[in-house]
User: What shape does this take?
Amino acid sequence: MTTADSARALVRRGTAVTVVALLALAGVYVLALLYTPVEARQGLAQKIFYLHVPAAWSALLAFSLVGICGGLYLWLNDRRLDRFAASSAEVGVAFGVVMLTTGPIWAKPIWGTWWTWDARLTLTLFLFFLFVGYLALRAALHDPSERARFSAVVGVLGLLLVPFIHLSVYLFRTLHPQPVVLKPSAPSLPPEMLRTLMVSALVFVLLYAGLVTIRYGLAVMEEEREERFDAA
Amino acid sequence: MPESLRLALAVAAKDIRAELRSRTALLSALVFAALVLVIFNFARDPTALAAVDLAPSVLWVTFALAAMVALNRAFTVERENGALDGLLLAPVPRGALFIGKLLANLAFVGTVEAVTLPLFVLFFNVDLGYALPGIAGVTALATIGFVAVGTIFSAMAVRTRFAELMLPVLLLPFMVPPLIGAVQVTARLLDGRPLSEMLGWFRLLALYDIVFVTLCTLAFAAVMDE
Assistant: This one.
């Protein structure tokens, strides 16, 4: 089997996973509307939580993997890691868009404002910008090895920016709801809400896996074309 | 003195000497910083907002923009006449080369900040009083961190087609934690609050410096690999 064939197989497999994930996402909508109770103070607006939080988690997962793969690339020099990091960054930016659009839709009725310069919002926005910058840097570099090394460095540095984001959340006066799941004491959500959230988180991870597989296959094809073009 | 530190100082001295001979970049950066301060003064409605309320943000936005101009210069000068190739051929470890470049950039940005601060006091009628040592300290802490990240990004950005645009796009997200910290501390210092109130921010800034100076020194080899 040639490289192009295996790349095409990857894209097909990725598409299948993505379709399954999208169907499951429709299931999450049903769960959120029918299974979970209506939150007493926020009303129906709270339902967006089941999209916003998993999207934010998957975006952060995607960005973390960009950083980890960047670090591993600098160590092992394996092109597959660079390809995966690039794919993950692109999908992470897409999830970031979901996070940054669902957030204001919720914030308008609850906080009374679309956007506020709360520490967590500001810094996630900048993290999003960082990965848009990461993709811009990749696009502006021609040499594949240079592109891989430079973006790996940006990825690693970006990964280390995340704890500083978290630290500043606690130092800066903050409006954002405090963590309800990932916190030292037990999660403070009713079981139905927690279950729906967890299902949605799994669905988003599946969606991430599908999209990254497609993008990875496309990256293989792209590289092959570049090499053919350079050889000619 | 350890050998690598001597080499780093040699690289820094080379950069500073080259800058002092032409002085064009330094003077332009100073004029630029002064202009930003002046423009800020007109960007606020004086009847609605007192200059002092805006002062910490103005100071730090000016420092950040001036640093960006300075950092853009750091590796563009090396690109001319293949100076960077010569530097890379010299028997200097990449880590020492990075520290040298970082020290030169810090000298450059520090000079711009040292000149901007009196201008800021003058234009915004701020009473520094006993806040000066604190402001000098927080400026040093915040500047070291983002100049370290800026130095490595500047080395990357010169290799791209849109170097002048690429550096701010990459660097600004990294400037956010030090800038927020620095603005918070500066505002409290100007208010005459006790230092113990800002200890958390000082720790965060120091941690940022340690993490990013170390990491950038280590990662520089990957950027300069030919």
Chain B has one domain: 3-224. The mean pLDDT of chain B is 88. The first helix of chain B runs from residue 3 to 22.
